[in-house]
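Please review this one.

:::
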Amino acid sequence: MYKLYNFQSSGNCYKIRLLMHQLGIPYESIEVDILRRESRTEDFLNINPNGRVPVLQVGEKYLPESNAAIWYLAEGSKFIPSDRFERAQALQWMFFEQYSHEPYIATLRFWISLLKDRQANLSQIEQRMPLGYAALNVMESHLKHRDFFAGDAYSVADIALYAYTHVAEEGEYDLSSYKHIKRWFSRVESQAAYIPITKIQ
């Protein structure tokens, strides 16, 4: 059985939980409270020297990085496109998510809704928010004439981008004008075996 070193509110951890549920893969969840620095203990750093969740344990091996983990799990399934170009397109969007999207949208959500420390991070929030909106604008433009991000079907690219986009309002992003993204949310949420992320209280 797989083991997932998991923090329930993390979008990166949610990607893996969502895909495993949709693939019907059983796993053991090992909760790591990042707010109590449990990902910075010596034991955890032996698993992932980068000190971050999620980590997917595969037998005796450990696979950090959420997008690497979902690609590994989805190999051979319908969630990775069979067409060579569309596979590369899925990777394109997964790289975009980690480089141009997650550092701005996820980080603001972490500071504002998880740490509840908006004021201490105000200058960083003001710097990063325009870059988060830039990422949302790229996504909105892509979805004007497409239902999904890679080819014509729901894939790991959609899982990667959905995880933090659909909770972007928890980072004070206003999604009201992003009608194509909102329609895409509905398409993702209508997929078989969809499960929600745990909402931040």
User: Anything to note?
Assistant: The two ends are 31 Å apart (CA to CA). Residues 43 and 57 are 14 Å apart (CA to CA). Helices lie at 11-23, 42-47, 66-74, 84-114, 122-143, 156-165, 179-189.
